[in-house]
Each structure stands twice: as structure tokens, then as C-alpha cells.
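Before the break, one more example. Copy the sequence into your notebook; we will annotate it together after we see the structure.
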Amino acid sequence: MATTTFNDLLVNPGYPLCDAAADACRGRQLPASGRCMAHASVTEKAVYFASLSSGADVDHSGTLISRADLSALRDAVTDAGTGRATVGKATFKQAIFTDSADFSGVDFTGRAVFADAEFCKGGDFTDAVFLHTARFTDAKFTREQGDSATFRRTMFTKIADFRRAGFAATAEFDQSVFEQQALFQSAKFQAIGRFSRCVFKGVTEFHGTVFEDAIFAASTFEAARELGPIVCTQALNLVEARFHASVTIKAAVHLVRCERTIFDSSASLLLRYATVHLEEASLVSPFAITHAPTPWGGTNTVESTLIAAHPTDSTYPKIASLRGVDATHVVLTDADLTSCRFTGAFHLDQLQLRGRTWFAQPPAGWRFGGRRGLYRWTGRRTLAEEQYWRRLNWPEWQPLVPPSVVQNEPGPEDVSALYRQLRKGLEDAKDEPGAADFYYGEMEMRRHDVTNTSRWVRRLLWLYWAVSGYGLRPSRAIASLLILMSASVFAIALWGLPDDSPKAKTTGTLPAAGQQLQLTTDTPDPRLSLPYGQRITWDRIGKATPIVFNSVAFRSSGQSLTVPGSWIEMTTRLVEPALLGLTVLAVRGRVKR
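Here is what the structure looks like once it is written out:
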């Protein structure tokens, strides 16, 4: 069986070629003429147009079509009663439209084929109706200024096939209706692809489609199960879009906008490089945002354009905001939350964080300033809201998102509530170390909340922070314990140990014969009369040390002490075991899972 090659198609494209061989014309001959519409005489064109009527089939494959010829063709198929141009089967395969191709308001009742056609100055299909398959496979809209293609309010009742189509400038499909399949695999939109307020009633195929900006704002996807994988060098706009069926969205994109997007069923976003805005999105079923670790087949090459446009972007998705979102069903896996704003979200205690999740870190390094002296911030996971608030008093705190884009900056009481909800969610998930950081943040915000936390509670929280980092910093608790023990040793050596251990004295009177002997034993009170310079000696420190160590274990040493020494011992027996318990608690909070 013979195989038809591409060269065979060049020699014999399957239709009678134009006789203008000198021009190497590939146009199809007009009926009753040996020339195509571009090379036919005025008389031949007039005869041809007169033979057409509303609903006629036309075939101008491979033809150079000017504005005048297209206008005359349109007039020939226009119904005088309705004023609308109607074409039956329309074939413009490999046709070249040298001027703007105006098909606005045309009804295509038969199959419309624009495969491999070239629209040199754009094409306008506004309000057109395709009652059969519309095939624009490999079509090229090469206009570089203005809109290269306009399909505004276009009705596609059957398959709309734009596979591998190329759009050099903005392509507009706003308010169009796709009754069946919308096929855009491997299409390339070098500028903006506008699909606002469109209705996709059937399958949508955007596998390997490339955009600068893809706008699907307020569009409705009634049966779409997958959108993408798409590559956008700028933004994928899904603002106020609605997905009726369970959908998976795959995209390598700089920005994903899902503000007020409605997901009526479950949804999964597999993303690379993207910053995601979810403000006021409606999520009534499981909703997941996951990092796609490798490029999808067919998109790895075009991703280089995205990387060149945004070289600092990480491949991990970044969540910008959850304001107004019910997080009951939200699952974030391998997500960057360093600049995520949680204020205004609902049910954050049910938010699921899986895999590697990043939060903002406090400023690193040692600093010296004001009353604080030399200090540094310990590492922990912090919320962007805390970053915004702290920058007012500590200039080293610089949030990743400029404060100018944040509305209604939260105060300590608001941030404390956010930390509390997130902590509860991690505790329910048995992630104790992760919950520990959020507990620390909660306590920090309570300590700084002058509105809802009383002064004495704030002082108590300050002491809790100073001695053990809210029971979460083992090193701080150990240091506090050692400092207190050392101070106790010196305090007992200075004021607690007497000059000598008092010796008991027994006295009595020798009775007469036959009488009972009575003895009285007295222990004199311990006395300390040594000058201060002789109280701190290795011998006295050696005696004081066991007393302090016994106090840590809540035991009495049995050592004779002065009255101040007894009070010191009593105090250490209360405080030092508490510090030891905080140390154990801090270690447990860091290692338990």
C-alpha cells in the first residue's frame, strides 16, 4: 500500500491548483475557472460570486485572500432578509489572509476548516456561530499589534479545534460558548489569551499550551476534569471562575489568581513556580495545592522562558493569602507560606499542612540596641502577620510582602488567635514540634498585647519567656537552672552556713538515791559572725553545693542553716524543680512526634 508523504501533498494537495504557475500559487481553482480567487479576472470573480447564495459551500484552500475578495465573498452569502452571512461547508485550509479577515457575525452551518491558515493582520470572528466542527489546527495569527484573533461571543456547537495554533498578539475569546470539546493542545499565545466569561460545557484540552497571560475570569467549566498543563510567563487568572466538576489544574506559572473562584467539587492544583491568591475562594470539597516536582511532558522546554522572566522564583508554590477562605477542606503539600496572610480565614485549625512547608523566619544574627543590649532572635516559624506587626518596633523585621499591599494590619490579639488555631491543627495531626513554634508565637503575641492582657499576666508571661522560652527552649531553661543554682550556692555560703555546726549540750542534776535522773539536751541556734571576706571559701562552697543539689530533687539536706539559709533552701526547693521540669518539657516538645 502506497504511503502519502508531505512532498506528495505539495505536488498534489488534493484539489485543482491555480493555473498561475509562474507565481507558484497553491490556491484552489474557482469553479468554471482555471485560476484561484486571487488570480482570477474581475469577470471570473463576478461570475463566481453571483453563483453563491446564503448557505453555499466555499473552498479556497491555499488561496491568498485580500480584504476586498473576502468582503465580496461575504456579501455573496449574506441573506437579504436577516442580514447575516451564512456559509455551509467552509474550507480555507492553508489559505493566507493578507488583510484583516472579517468573519464577524458569520454562521458556519457546515464543517469550517482553517487548518494551517495564516491570518497576517488578524482575524475577527466576533458573534460567529459554528454549527459544526471548527478546525483551526496549526493556524497562525501573525498580527503583532492589537488583537491577532478575536472570537468574542463566538458560539462553538461542536468541536473547537485550535491544536498547535499560534497567536502573535492578544487572542480574545471573551463570552464565547464551547458546547463540546475545546481543544487547545500545544497552542502558543505569545501575548494574552483572553477567555473571560466563557462557558465550557464539554472537555477542555490545554495540554502543553503556552501563554504570557491566560485569563479565564468569570468563566464556567461545566464538565472539565483537567486544565493544563499550562505554561504562563505571567499569570493564570481564574478570578470568579466556576468549576462544576472535580478538576485538576496543572500549571507552571508565575502567578495564579483564584480570588472568589468557586469550586463546586474537589479540586487539585499541581503547580510549579506559582504564587497563589485564594482570597474569598469558595471551597466546599477537598481542595489541594501540591508542588509538581518535574515538568510535564512537552512543557520542560518552554519553562525556560518562565525561568528567564522570573529567575528568583522557586519551583515550590507560594501561597499569598487565604483571606475569606474556609480552610476546612484545604490541604497544602510542599508549599511556601513565608508571605501567606491568614487573617480572615475560617477554620484554620482544620488546615492540613503536609510535606515540606516553609514559614518566615525571624532576623538572623546578633544585634545591639537600646535597653535590650546585645540580643538575637531565636529561629522559629513565624506568620507574615507577626512580621508586619514587629516591623513597627524592630526595624530588622522586614516582611517579604510590602506592608503597603496589606489591608487592616492585624494587632497582637489577632495574630495570637491565628497562632492558636494553627497550633491546634498541628496538635491534632500529632505534629508536636511544628505546634511548638506556633505556641511560642501565640505566647509572644499575648505578652505584647496591652489591650486584652493585664499587666500582671504580661509580667508573668515575660518571666515565663525569660527563664524557659515558654517551656520550649531547653537551653534557656538549663541556663536559668544553672544560674539559679550558682546564685543559691553563693547565697547559702554568704548567709546560710553558720560559723561552725552547733553541738548539742546535755545538762542535768544528780538526784538523790532512789530518784530518777533528768537530762535536758539543747542545741544552740546556728550563728554566723564571720566577716564577709571569710565567708566565700572553697570549704564553705563545698558545703553549700550539696544543699542546692538536694533542693533540685526536692529533698532536704539536713544541714544546720541560719534562718536566712533556711529561707534560701526553701525557695530553691520550690523554684529549681520547676526549672528542671521546664527543661524536660522543652526537650519533649522538640523531639515528640
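The CA atoms of residues 470 and 527 lie 41 Å apart. Confidence is low (pLDDT under 50) at residues 1-10. Try to locate both features in your own notes.
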